[in-house]
Amino acid sequence: MLGILLQHYSGTQKVSDSGVAIPSIFMHLMQKAKVYSPPRYLAYLDSARGIAAMMVLLGHFVAWKFGDRLVVKASMFLFNAHDAVSFFFVLSGMVLSYQYLVLDKKLDLRKYFVNRFFRLFPAFFITVLLNALYWQRSHFTLPAIVNDILLGGQGFWKESLLLRSAAKYYVPGWTLVVELSASFLIPFMIVIARSNRQLLWWLLFALLAGVRLINGFLIHFILGVTISAYYFQLCSEEFTTSRWYRLRYPILLLAIGLFSIRRIQDISPFGPDFYAWGGYFQIDLFFYTGIASFVFLAFLIRSRKAQQVLMLPLLRFLGKISYGIYLMHWLVVCIIFDYWDYFSKFFPSQKTAFLGMCIICVFVSILLAYIIHHTVELPFIKMGKRFTEKMKPGISV
What we know:
Number of strands: 2
Low-confidence stretches: 1-34
Distance between the termini: 22 Å
Structural class: mainly alpha
Radius of gyration: 24 Å
Oligomer: single chain
C-alpha cells in the first residue's frame, strides 16, 4: 500500500515556506491533517454523562415508592434510570479507546490498568463503606462493625473490592463490576480496531451468536470502541454525502424509540413471543438501548448545535461530578424513603412532599458528589498519574 502511494505521489515535489523540498505525498498528508484535527478532550461528553447520571438519580427517586402509577411510568421515558446504564457503558468504550484510536497515543497496559483502578476504586470503596455503615445503623455496635465490615462477615470486602458482582449495600454497584471487568478487555478491542476495524463487527456478531465473554454488556463497550474507530469518518465532509447522514433524523427517532423500549413494555407489554425471539438470540432489552446509545453518541459527534448545548456551564459542572452523583445518590434516596413518613409530615400534602423531597434529594446528592469529587476522586486520580509516571514501561500497543 505504501509503495502504491509513493508511486502515485512521488512524481512532483513542492517547496515549503522554509525552502525545503517536500515530496507531494507528504504535502498531501499534511493538507489532509489540516482538514480536521481531533480535540484532545471531548468535554461535551462529560455533560452527556452528567445528564445520564441525573437520569439515574431522578429515575430511582421517582420509581422507588410510586413506580406502579401510570403517570410515573410515563415520566420514566425521561428519567430512564435502567437504560442510562447502557449509555454509560457505550460512552466508556468510546472514551477509553479515543486517545489510542483517534489521538494515536501508545497504550501501556500496566499504566492503563493502574490509572483505571485509581479512577474507579477509591470513590467506590468509600461509597460501599458509607452504605454499609448506614445499613448497620440498627445494631451499630463495635462487635457488629468488626464482624460485618472489618472481617467481611456480610460480604463487605467482596463487594467493596469489586471482586464479584455481590451488590448488597450499594445495589447499583454491579455496574461498576461490569465497568472494571470490561476495562481489562478494552485494550484487546483497541488492538483489533488498529489491525482492522471491520473485525469489530465480526466480534459483535460472535457475541450475538452466543460467545458471551462477560455478559451482554460487553457489546456496549465494543460499540463504544467502534465509534472511536470510525471517528474520523464520522467527522469527515464525505460523511455528509452518505445515506446514513441523510437519514440521520429518522435514525435518531428510531434510537429514541429503542432507548424507551423498556418504558414502552412497562405500559404495554410486548407478549411472550417478543421475549422468546430475544431469548433465542440471547438479546435482552439492554441490547436495544445499547444500539440506541451508539446512535446518540454518533449524533453528538456530528451535531455542533448539540455540542454547544452540552457545553453550558451547568451541564459541564454536572458532567465533572457525574461519577460522584452516580455513587452518592443511592444512599440519599434510601434514607429519604426509609424515613418517608417522618419527612412527609413537614409538607402539607403528599404531592408537595414528593416535589420537595425530590429537590432535597437532588441538592444533597450533588453536594455529596462535589465533596467526594474533590476529596477522593481528584486526589486519587492525581496519585495514580504520579504512580504511573514512576513506573517502568510495560507491554505497550
